[in-house]
Design a protein that fits this description.
The chain is an alpha/beta fold and about 280 residues long. It is built from ten helices and nine strands. β6, α6 (about 165-185) and β7 (about 185-200) form a beta-alpha-beta unit. The longest helix is centred in the C-terminal third of the chain and has 18 residues, at about 250-270. The chain is globular. About 45% of the residues are buried. The chain binds adenosine-5'-diphosphate.
Length: about 280
């Protein structure tokens, strides 16, 4: 019990040094949550903010790889038991279970309470130092687990939701919004990823449908932060550990990511994120 209290006190002290704590949640797996988290972190860093990313997607940690750091790279442990995050270009601090397990094929068979305690330990023992932003990449979905994890982060400033423009995502986003409302956590906004594909000759194809994320944002009065198109170079960069927005800064997707980062800065630093109001019948 004492250990737990000490850990919580350390986590709170650590979080006090970070101006804005933001969790990134997705409607489901594979919608690009990690891509959005890593890109947003890079964009914020390029805009002069000091940024850390905590990859709490324990079953499929991928943030480190998106920054070109191999699985099992390690994190420096200090004599006092604390650990240092790894710093990756363009200057983003990263802490992840993926840096601590030896290989990608080592499966973590952890139940909810263990994951909650792992997140608490990372929050308590990682030396982030003073940061402007800590982005926490949560496991996919809006089930009990990511929600419980979100709860274990002290002094959270807000949630960013990532979805794709399909109707299926709508109900899941609704659940996250209802959670935020119940837990009195502000929602910074919704990002729609894989919104469309622009063919080389300019035509736009809405592969996963059109407009669902914007509709739901309007329904709940939540900011719609922007749409990121499908760009095959994003996957190529992710697979080869290159940061997309610095590799292809002139692309439409990179511009969209920078616009989203500017909106996030405006909403978070301007104290504009609101706790959503959800009526019982919703
Ligand atoms: P999640 O974290 O939601 O599971 P990821 O961020 O790992 O999803 O993305 C899943 C895959 O889709 C990755 O290979 C990633 O490179 C790719 N991807 C994500 N967003 C885009 C996009 N806008 N265009 C092209 N590929 C994308």
């Amino acid at each position: 019990m004492r250990e737990l209290q000490k850990q919580q006190a350390m986590a709170v002290a650590n979080m006090m040094k970070i101006k804005y704590k933001v969790v990134v949640m997705s409607s489901k797996g594979g919608v690009g949550k990690s891509l959005v988290t890593s890109s947003l972190a890079s964009a914020l860093a390029l805009m002069g903010r000091s940024v850390g990313v905590l990859d709490a997607d324990f079953h499929g940690p991928s943030i480190h790889k998106m920054f070109g750091i191999p699985t099992g790279y390690g994190m420096l442990a200090r004599m006092d038991g604390t650990i240092d995050p790894v710093v990756a270009p363009p200057g983003v601090k990263i802490a992840s279970i993926g840096l601590l397990v030896p290989r990608d094929d080592v499966a973590l068979i952890w139940r909810g309470p263990i994951k909650a305690s792992a997140i608490r330990e990372l929050l308590a023992y990682v030396n982030w130092g003073s940061l402007d932003y800590l982005l926490v990449d949560l496991p996919p979905g809006t089930g009990d687990e990511p929600l419980t994890l979100a709860q274990s982060i002290p002094k959270l400033n807000g949630i960013i939701l990532v979805t794709i423009p399909s109707d299926v995502s709508k109900s899941v986003v609704k659940r996250a919004v209802a959670f935020a409302s119940k837990m009195k956590i502000p929602v910074i906004g919704i990002i729609e990823n894989m919104s469309y594909y622009r063919c080389p000759h300019g035509d736009i194809i809405y592969i996963f449908g059109k407009g669902a994320a914007r509709e739901i944002a309007e329904e709940y009065g939540i900011p719609f932060l922007g749409s990121i198109p499908i760009d095959p170079r994003i996957r190529e960069c992710n697979d080869s550990g290159k940061v997309f927005i610095t590799e292809y800064p002139d692309s439409e997707a990179a511009q969209a990511i920078r616009d989203i980062a500017s909106k996030v800065i405006d909403i978070v630093e301007g104290g504009k994120a609101k706790i959503p109001v959800v009526k019982e019948e919703d």
